Amino acid sequence: MAIEEFKEVSGSELIQDIFLFKNLNFSEAHELAKICQREKFGQGEVIIEENSLGQALFIIEAGEVKVVKGEGRSAREITRLGRGELFGEMSLIENELTSASVIAGNEVSVLVIHRPQFEELLEKDLSLALKVYKSFCHTLSERLRKTTAELSKLQDRLSAQPKAKPKPNSRSKRIARRKK
Question: How far is CA 11 from CA 16, 96, 107, 145, 148, in A?
């Protein structure tokens, strides 16, 4: 029993370390930890499949996952995530298909917060709900700001590149010769 209690405390601390829940006090983080389930995945196991309906948020306790866009030959790794990082968070607030697959890069242990239990907890505690949704808004705002900055840099780089001159086709060459 003491080990289980320790695991809950450990889950609470991990939850408070997550940017999405950093403004929760220990008691609120503990309530969130109570609805978490621990799951383990072996290397190469698909945790989330691209274009599936997301149903949970995952917090990595141990190991590493790969975020992959596309499949087969067109699949490309977008990023890798490790301990203390999360994925699937948008599935807690929207009914949209997932934008990428998440695959265990090695043995992975995660805390999982399923949407129905999450919604039930927030319905019971409006103060907690306000903090969580405010944090979601802040996170989305940061991501949008970062994406806008990256897009702006990309546009700057593209506009700085010299424009390629179109190669004249055979008709253009004939017209140019006639003008001489």
Answer: 9, 28, 19, 30, 34
Strand-by-strand arrangement of the 46-48 sheet? 46-48, 101-104, 65-69, 76-81
Strand-pairing partners, residue 111, are 38, 59
Per the confidence metrics, is the pTM higher than 0.90?
no
Give the residue from 48, 23, 58 showing the smallest Cα distance to 135.
Answer: 23
The answer on pLDDT for 167 being more than 60 is yes
Picking from 86, 43, 79, 27, the residue whose alpha carbon sits closest to that of residue 61 is 86
Domains and CATH numbers, the chain: 2-149 (2.60.120.10)
Kindly state the average pLDDT of the residues 63-71. 95
Alpha helices, DSSP H, located in the chain? 2-17, 26-34, 115-124, 126-160, 170-179
Label the pairing between strands 86-87 and 37-41.
unpaired
Residue 177 is given by DSSP the state: H
- Tell me the pLDDT tens digit for each residue of 74-125: 999 999 999 988 899 888 888 889 999 999 999 999 999 999 999 999 999 9
Q: What are phi and psi of 126, to 5 degrees?
A: -65, -30
